[in-house]
Amino acid sequence: MSGLFDLVVSVVRVAVMLAFTLSLVPILVWAERKGAAYIQDRRGPNRAKILGLTLGGLFHPLADALKLLFKEDFIPDGAHRLFYQMAPMFALAPALMTFAVVPVGPPVVIAGREVALQVADLNVGILYIFAISGLAVYGVILAGWASNSKYPLLGGLRSSAQMISYEVSLGLSIIGLVMVFRSVRLSEIVASQGTLLWGIVPKWGVFVQPLGFLLFLVAVYAEANRTPFDLPEGESEIVAGFHTEYGSFKFSIFFMAEYVHMVVGSALIATLFFGGWQVPYLADSGFVLPGGAALGLPGPLVLLLRIGAFVGKLLFFAWLFIWVRWTIPRFRYDQVMRLGWKVLLPLSLANIFVTGLVLLLIGGGA
Amino acid sequence: MAIGVKKVARPRQMSGGETLYLLEILRGLGVTMGHLVRNVFRQENIATIEYPEVRRVMPPRFRGLHRLMRRPDGTPRCVACYCCATACPAVCITIVAGESPDPAVEKYPVRFDIDMLRCVFCGHCVEACPCDAIRMDTGWFTPPEHTREKLIYTIDMLLEK
Ligand code: SF4
Ligand code: SF4
């Protein structure tokens, strides 16, 4: 009986998370196109209609997906047939897998048993994330190399150099956080962000590790290949980079992978640095303000608030990805490398050092 | 004569805040968000013209789609002299002449087709016409169609415009 229960719970969790992540993709595509249009004083997509409804262009991503689905699925001459077909899967799968360890809410009790609201509560959480997100670069490199064409190859080379350089800062920027929260398990990191710092400020990662947050943010943008670090696909220089030779649904899988990367990146930023599902001053029983005032809330409402807070934070950071894209131009290649190795790396090392020093001085517990 | 030395303007030294980038990026984010909010709430200020529904008003001398003129009695003014077809650099005017029932007029166009897919809107046909029978003052350009055939404008369509 308990085995069956576990199985059902796991399957439901996987299904819900997958549906959640994938359904965010069209919404983000829409937000990207519409947001870009308004930022650039345009109107953006507003034509696709279902039953006379346009919903502000919300059907355009759907129409795009349908169109790509019906396009001819071709493999260019001279491409490595196997790797060429594998590359899109390699791009999408790691992005989806990373989301597995992100907790979307506190553990809930169902039928007398505690169920974590995340697909897998791994005790190596952060290490798992790095291991899997390190695989994402294979999709890009394989696509670039297997296409047998010069621009994809350049894009692939760029992305391998960029991802490897920024992975270092990405990893190091979190070490400080791990030192403060003394765990690499994401659910524990989130749980310990529920306490207050000096009685008023929520102990979110961004308040204890502001520099770490900044470094992580930059590194995540570079890892997700988003502007200002979208060199692997710099349209104005190398056509479309690694996916130049891709068409039909293979292309849209790359497209989806990019947005899933955004979702996962936003989820990680929210989880590690903005308290995940924690709402400031919201305890299990309701709001408890620092002054002593309290407002009792029923348990299910608290749960909903918390999941809502997580989704809200995630959407905000996803929007930040889009917002930044339409604000800053792309870096030049040497600038990307200089920023990665000469600025981010020393800063993240300094951050670890200072964090260690402070922890030592105040007696090992913050 | 001494060789003149031209001083090339160098970009000015960036201030400390600017070299940090972050503050400038935040300011940039402010600018883009300002545009977004303004455009969401004041949609009428967006310059985009919703094309098929709203037409842009063209300047009065815009060289647009052709039309054929009529005489006061309604017959086409064109005398099928082939001047326009000869002048046309794109060879897109097809004329078939017929004998006019009116004794005062020698010929009239039985067919007068302009292939809009080939026309380059140069206006030579208008220049060439001896009786001001063809004009390009409709103030509009070729609308999109689903088939090529629909873009070969016949004499009836040209007289309608
Ligand atoms: S505008 Fe020029 S190209 Fe067009 S029909 Fe007249 S002469 Fe020919
Ligand atoms: S030049 Fe004028 S009159 Fe002569 S065929 Fe053309 S439109 Fe008719």
Please tell me about this protein's structure.
The complex is a heterodimer of chains A (366) and B (161). Chain A has helices at 2-39, 60-69, 81-98, 125-146, 150-181, 186-192, 205-208, 210-223, 235-238, 248-273, 299-325, 333-361, and strands at residues 108-110, 113-115, 196-197, 201-202, 282-283, 286-288, 294-296. Chain A has a 3-stranded antiparallel beta sheet with strand order 5-6-7, with no helix packed on it. Chain A starts with a helix and ends in a 5-residue tail after the last helix. In chain A, strand 3 and strand 4 form a beta hairpin. Chain A has one domain (2-362). The longest helix of chain A has 38 residues, at 2-39. Chain A is built from 12 helices and 7 strands. Chain A is globular. Helix content of chain A is 63%, strand content 5%. In chain A, helix 1 crosses helix 10, helix 3 (81-98) packs antiparallel against helix 4 and helix 5 (150-181) packs parallel to helix 12. By secondary structure, chain A is mainly α. Chain B has 161 residues and is of the alpha+beta class. Chain B has 5 helices and 5 strands. Chain B has helices at 16-19, 22-41, 83-87, 124-128, 155-160, and strands at residues 67-68, 93-99, 107-115, 134-135, 152-153. In chain B, strands 2-3-5 form a 3-stranded antiparallel beta sheet. In chain B, strand 2 and strand 3 (107-115) form a beta hairpin. The radius of gyration of chain B is 28 Å and the shape is elongated. Chain B starts with 15 loop residues before the first helix and ends with a helix. The mean pLDDT of chain B is 86. The interface between A and B is medium-sized, with 13 and 16 residues. Bound molecules: iron/sulfur cluster (SF4) (2 copies). One iron/sulfur cluster binds next to helix 4 of chain B.
Quick structural summary:
In chain A, 63% of the residues lie in helices and 5% in strands. Chain A contains twelve helices and seven strands.
